[in-house]
Amino acid sequence: MDEIRIKQLEVFAHHGVFPEENRLGQKFVVSAVLYTDLRRAGLTDDLNHSMDYGAVCAEIQHYLTAHTFQLLETAAERLCMHLLRTLPLLRRIRLEIEKPWAPIGLPLNTASVCITRGWHTAYLALGSNLGDKKAYLDGAVQALREDEDMRMGAVSDYLVTAPYGGVEQDDFLNAVLRVDTLLPPHELLDRLHEIEQAAGRERLVHWGPRTLDLDILFYDDEIIADETLHVPHPEIPKRDFVLKPLAQIAPYLVHPVYHRTISELLDALHA
């Protein structure tokens, strides 16, 4: 990915743990690497296809002077999230905030915090087999669309499927969608649980009926296996009701464990 670099932008702001830092203010030095695709800008010589680094510098200066934080870590985190949410072409950012006048009582050139944040691509499964199933799926899609930490991508058709897991219950309505998210995997899972709870989800019977079920199928190419989260979802190759809608929106997506496309996994399931 291409880079736009901003080096040592000086900003006078009011961040710090001590009250006098918040009251009197001090100099901060900001450097950033903005990751984006500059190919179209290079071919067209048109600023609309790039990011105006002068405007980005002005936005950094405005944000850091309009807010007060105790920790550099918080200032860096909030500034990164603000820029990622407001700059449509920005995919990832590496940001360093230096504090040359850090009050530590020892000779020091500068103290700094450096973080990297960005958009990640996730594929989510949606299911419902209680009440107004379509309304529950529609509500989940809308909740994700309105979330400032999400950018909605393709949404599959809603498919009627038989229940899975051996529990006698009504048919499901299932779908899959693609979303870009600023949330790391476990925070994304927590956000999905919040949406489920808002829909009245109760976890009473394993593989039992539910108003709304949201699962993370893929998160970039990451492989995660811990007490709370398994990504890619381990049941993907066995589930027709996941592979069919996934093949609608991402047939050539490659499973990072099996190294086969979604279309190939679907064909293998029906072989």
Automatic annotation (TrEMBL):
Example GO biological process: folic acid biosynthetic process
Domain called 7,8-dihydro-6-hydroxymethylpterin-pyrophosphokinase: residue spans: 206-217
Gene3D superfamilies xref list: 3.30.1130.10, 7,8-Dihydro-6-hydroxymethylpterin-pyrophosphokinase HPPK
InterPro entries: Dihydroneopterin_aldolase, FolB_dom, GTP-CH-I_C/QueF, Hppk, Hppk_sf
Keyword annotations: ATP-binding, Folate biosynthesis, Kinase, Lyase, Nucleotide-binding, Transferase
Catalyzed reaction equations: 7,8-dihydroneopterin = 6-hydroxymethyl-7,8-dihydropterin + glycolaldehyde; 6-hydroxymethyl-7,8-dihydropterin + ATP = (7,8-dihydropterin-6-yl)methyl diphosphate + AMP + H(+)
Signal peptide, first to last residue: none
EC number in record: 4.1.2.25, 2.7.6.3
GO molecular function: 2-amino-4-hydroxy-6-hydroxymethyldihydropteridine diphosphokinase activity; ATP binding; dihydroneopterin aldolase activity; kinase activity
Pathway given in the UniProt record: Cofactor biosynthesis; tetrahydrofolate biosynthesis; 2-amino-4-hydroxy-6-hydroxymethyl-7,8-dihydropteridine diphosphate from 7,8-dihydroneopterin triphosphate: step 4/4; Cofactor biosynthesis; tetrahydrofolate biosynthesis; 2-amino-4-hydroxy-6-hydroxymethyl-7,8-dihydropteridine diphosphate from 7,8-dihydroneopterin triphosphate: step 3/4
Role, per record: Catalyzes the conversion of 7,8-dihydroneopterin to 6-hydroxymethyl-7,8-dihydropterin.
Family the entry assigns: Belongs to the DHNA family. In the N-terminal section; belongs to the DHNA family.
Name of the protein in its database record: Bifunctional folate synthesis protein
Source organism of this protein record: Butyricicoccus porcorum
